[in-house]
Amino acid sequence: MCAKWWKELKYENCTNHITIQRDFRAIYECEHCGHRHEASGYDDSHFHQTVIPDMKCPQCDQTASADYRPLAPKYSDDTTV
Length: 81
Prior knowledge:
- The protein is an alpha+beta fold.
- It has one domain.
- Helix content is about 10%, strand content about 20%.
- It has one helix and three strands.
- It has a three-stranded antiparallel β-sheet with strand order 1-2-3, with helices on one face.
- The longest helix is centred in the middle third of the chain and has 10 residues.
- The two termini are about 15 Å apart.
């Protein structure tokens, strides 16, 4: 889960690996302005394909560009963690 996988806000050094089921905390860094902030996440397809590209940087208010390509979650959606 700690791989850098979002072009706009991306993981950089997870502070906690998956904590409760699929929940995690990570430091996100905006590729537009470099702003970093810590926030939670959820490791499923919806989070990777919808939530991440819609995240707005708290500093510059930008979101993912049109060429954003989501990665797959660590576990498939039908797997109980």
